[in-house]
Design goal:
Blueprint lengths: L6 E3 L13 E4 L10 E4 L3 E5 L5 E8 L17 H16 L3 H7 L15 E7 L30 E5 L4 E6 L2 E8 L4 E7 L5 E6 L3 E8 L2 E7 L3 E2 L10 E2 L8 E10 L2 E6 L2 E6 L3 E9 L13 H17 L1 H16 L3 E4 L13 H8 E2 L2 E2 L5 H18 L25 E2 L3 H5 L1 H5 L7 H13 L1 H8 L9 E2 L15 H4 L4 H15 L3 H21 L1 E2 L5 E2 L10 E2 L6 E2 L6 H20 L7 H10 L46 H14 L5 H13 L3 H11 L32 H15 E2 L5 E3 L10 E8 L3 E8 L2 E9 L6 E6 L2 E6 L5 E4 L1 H9 L1
Parallel strand pairs: 30-34
Antiparallel strand pairs: 1-36, 2-7, 3-4, 4-5, 5-6, 6-11, 7-8, 8-9, 9-10, 10-19, 11-18, 12-13, 13-16, 14-15, 16-19, 17-18, 20-31, 21-22, 23-24, 25-26, 27-28, 29-30, 31-32, 32-33, 33-36, 34-35
Helix pairs in contact: 1-2, 1-10, 6-19, 9-12, 12-13, 12-14, 13-14, 13-15, 14-15, 17-18, 17-19
Pfam families: Glyco_hyd_65N_2 (PF14498), Glyco_hydro_95_C (PF21307), Glyco_hydro_95_cat (PF22124)
InterPro entries: 6-hairpin_glycosidase_sf, 6hp_glycosidase-like_sf, AFCA-like_C, Alpha-L-fucosidase, GH95_cat, GH95_N_dom
GO molecular function, one term: alpha-L-fucosidase activity
Length: 835
């Protein structure tokens, strides 16, 4: 065994201390939704404004969506219509008539995914009569504004402790603590107000079916709309309620603990009034059944469950509720931690105010992450917190806003957008020790494997399964758009193919025979679609046509016309290659080849024939074969570089160089999620200086700007509560930057373990623990002055004994028995470099 990593030590998983990078803190209440702090348990979400006398809490629940949506019989896009449209588009592409090819694809479009919905508004008042619940039409964000001047008091403070997942507010005479428990499935709001009366008022933008008050308990049944038209379609009547509704119903139960409690129900909501200090227990259950299926028609069971949860929580007691909650959250949260900066204390004093930390990175019109590295460490912790809070087993996947929403027509329907955003939400799950949080995503992919078979056969004549650009909890799988939307994003049948990368990651990061057996049929169905969709070219290679590259457009050769449909987009080819290669790897690693012998043989024959990505005359990676000029050279989507990240086959040196030049040409500017993806790609390409530039852009404050060159209105940044801006808020930026930072520190996609492959120059000092690598490895690192000073590598029980480790120019094969930890110190590194 090599002298490097030669000393064996027992595994160590320390817990984080009460460090400023584990909390948000503010000196004034939230003035708007993107200043509130988020709580969640994977199902129930809450946004707290932190107002003293008149608190505002917006509630949401992951399964409350509009829909299930329109499912006409027979389907308006019949097999004959679909096959004719594809044939016409393919013929037009072959003839060089890209405009006609694009127009033909409008015939495939049907309807749209439904929208994630807000649940209710909860108002807590101290020392004043309770406000009346408002009618449905008045419960809108514009009604949020309450002039709570307590925020001006020097003694005011509010915050969010990420380690305990508890939000708190302290003001003159009012102390509030709130958390959403995963073990007990309740929201708990504790209020101490110097014995003044406390009231809680619940109303909702949804339809109130009925409300009941009974002593210290009250409950309400709410109904989501049957159809919500996406906001970008600009219809005059976008929120629709059917005369014979079949959508989701939500039962909200509330109980108050404290002094004398009075409850009352009104036509618009419920009120609980407590004579002194009070604790509110709130539970929600819905008629949602499972992803892809219609809800139950009867709310009776959901209401009984919600009421029982409240009763059980009261019987448990607040202290036990809090202890169980903190323990369950910390079990996930404590698995990884990032510290940046020198010494045990932060370089910038952030102990009082997160606003001060955001201000610290500002440098004129720009920002410098290196000035306050604690902000990046906080964002790492915050992103993991947000995924834990919005995605847990048994719930629904994190959507564009995670699990939080206050609008009936949220931006982009707050749906599952699958040409980058949903995938990005889950990149951090494997690398930062949150594998359980990916379970809802796996459930959705399996729902697509069922619901996507019908459109795969009807539209494409395939016996596999398909999913397109966007979806919802009903597993909508058709091309969307009602015949009017741009095929640049509305036609893209590779969402399911991309989503399978997460299934593959699950069984490559850690040996999991049960998961491999569970996922292999899903991989087979996706591979069947790809093999049916690939078509031969005159040179014997395989490609795709018609083909788009989300969401970009090219200039039709010889014209000034922009178009989005051609042949052989690089993204199609790379995702096809990755899926077929992964299918064979899983089949062999888990001895499953006999379960799909013919399919595996077909995949083996097709793999070497899939066309390689081309390079244009400027040395840039082509987005489509034989097309050079892009309509928007700085487009935020970088779909053609998917072979760099997140797929796991390292590109050749020539393709890596072309990818780097392509990123240069695209420019650094972009949306929050685009900045995160570019950062991960630059890390994979071992370009730490470029990583540093992108992180500088990511940490600036969000400001609204007019469209212009180099990014226009798509300019990412951070809102006051550190939500990432598209703009508007999209959670993929928060979750994606965690994965990008992990890629800067540890990589394992190339078949070996690489340490500090892309450490930005502005972050010379730091430490990380709990990063996961393929093969069941867990890595802890410490570095000073840009050099690794200590590393611990812990193997899993099913890890291979031999691990190849790369650190700069050093490369070693290590004997690492299962369940052991090897430690590398500064002395080991110095001796090895000298030798």
């Amino acid at each position: 065994m090599s002298s490097v990593f030669s000393s064996e030590v027992p595994p160590s998983r320390a817990t984080p201390s009460a460090h400023p990078v584990h909390r948000l803190e503010f000196a004034s209440p939230a003035a708007e939704w993107v200043e509130a702090v988020p709580l969640g348990n994977g199902r129930l979400g809450a946004m707290l404004y932190g107002r003293a006398e008149q608190e505002l809490i917006w509630l949401s629940e992951g399964s409350v969506w509009s829909g299930p949506g329109r499912r006409p019989e027979p389907h308006p896009v019949t097999a004959d219509v679909a096959r004719a449209a594809i044939a016409a588009s393919r013929a037009a592409v072959a003839a060089g008539d890209h405009v006609a090819a694009e127009e033909a694809l409008h015939a495939l479009q049907h309807s749209y995914p439904q929208s994630f919905q807000p649940l209710a508004r909860l108002r807590r008042t101290v020392g004043a009569p309770a406000p009346e619940p408002a009618p449905q039409a008045e419960v809108v964000p514009a009604q949020d504004g309450v002039d709570d001047s307590a925020g001006a008091d020097a003694g005011y403070a509010r915050g969010l402790d990420l380690h305990s997942a508890v939000a708190w507010t302290r003001a003159a005479g009012v102390d509030q603590r709130a958390f959403v428990s995963a073990p007990h499935q309740v929201l708990v709001v504790e209020v101490s107000a110097s014995e003044r009366p406390v009231s809680f008022v619940l109303d909702s933008p949804l339809r109130l079916e009925h409300a009941v008050a009974d002593g210290a308990e009250a409950w309400a049944v709410l109904r989501a709309p049957d159809d919500v038209v996406p906001a970008y379609q600009r219809e005059s009547d976008p929120v629709r309620w059917a005369s014979d509704p079949r959508g989701v119903q939500a039962a909200v139960a509330m109980r108050a603990i404290g002094g004398a409690v009075r409850s009352r129900a009104t036509p618009d909501g419920v009120v609980l009034e407590v004579s002194g200090d009070a604790t509110l227990i709130l539970a929600v259950r819905t008629t949602f059944t499972r992803l892809g299926d219609d809800p139950e028609p009867d709310v009776t069971t959901a209401l009984a469950q919600a009421r029982r949860l409240c009763r059980d929580a009261v019987a448990t007691g607040v202290d036990r509720l809090h202890g169980d909650h903190v323990a369950a959250h910390a079990e996930l949260y404590d698995r990884a931690e990032l510290r940046l900066g020198t010494g045990p204390e932060p370089a910038v004093d952030i102990s009082a105010d997160t606003d001060a930390l955001l201000d610290a990175v500002a440098d004129g019109d720009g920002a410098r992450a290196g000035v306050a590295p604690e902000l990046l460490a906080l964002l790492f912790q915050y992103g993991r917190y947000l995924l834990i809070s919005s995605s847990r087993p048994g719930g629904t996947p994190a959507n564009l806003q995670g699990i939080w929403n206050q609008q009936l027509q949220p931006p982009w329907s707050s749906d599952f957008t699958m040409n980058i955003n949903l995938e990005m939400n889950y990149w951090l799950a494997e690398t930062t020790g949150l594998r359980e949080c990916a379970e809802p995503l796996f459930d959705l992919v399996e729902a697509f494997a069922e619901r996507g078979r019908e459109p795969a056969e009807r539209i494409y004549g395939s016996s596999g399964w398909v999913a397109h650009h966007a979806s919802d909890i009903w597993a909508f799988a058709d091309p969307m758009g009602d015949g009017t939307h741009d095929p640049a994003w509305a036609f893209w049948p590779f969402a399911g193919v991309w989503l399978t990368t997460h299934l593959v990651d699950r069984v490559t990061f850690e040996r999991d025979d049960a998961a491999a057996r569970r996922f292999f049929p899903v991989l087979c169905g996706a591979a069947r679609f790809v093999l049916d969709w690939l078509e031969p070219r005159p040179d014997g290679t395989l490609g795709t046509s018609p083909s788009t590259s989300p969401e970009n457009r090219f200039v039709v050769p010889g014209t000034d016309r922009a178009c989005s449909v051609a042949a052989d987009s690089t993204m199609d080819l790379e995702l096809s290659r990755h899926l077929l290669r992964s299918l064979l790897r899983v089949a062999d690693d888990y001895r499953l080849r006999d379960d799909a012998a013919d399919l595996c043989q077909e995949a083996e024959a097709a793999l070497p024939r899939i066309a390689e990505a081309g390079v244009d005359g400027d040395g840039l990676l082509r987005e489509w074969a034989d097309l050079d000029r892009m309509a928007d050279p700085h487009h935020r989507h970088i779909a053609h570089l998917v072979g760099v990240h997140p797929t796991d086959a390292p590109p050749s040196a020539s393709l890596a160089a072309a990818a780097s030049r392509s990123l240069d040409a695209r420019g650094d500017e972009g949306t929050g999620w685009s900045l995160a993806w570019k950062t991960a790609m630059r890390a994979r390409l071992h370009e730490p200086e470029a990583v540093g530039r992108l992180l500088d852009l990511f940490v600036r404050r969000n400001i609204e700007i007019e469209p212009g060159p180099g990014g226009g209105r798509w300019r990412g940044g951070l809102y006051r509560n550190l939500f990432s801006a598209h703009p508007p808020f999209q959670i993929d930026g928060n979750l994606g930057v965690v994965a990008a930072l992990a890629e800067c520190l540890v990589q394992s996609h190339a078949g070996y373990l690489e340490l500090l492959p892309a450490l930005p120059p502005d972050l010379p000092d730091g430490e990380v623990r709990g990063l996961h690598a393929r093969g069941g490895l867990v890595v802890d690192l410490q570095w000073r002055a840009g050099e690794l000073t200590e590393a611990r590598i812990t193997s899993g029980q099913d890890s291979p004994r031999t691990v190849r480790v790369v650190l700069g120019s050093l490369e070693r094969l290590l004997d690492l028995p299962p369940g052991q930890t090897l430690r590398l110190t500064t002395t080991d590194i110095s001796q090895e470099r000298a030798s």
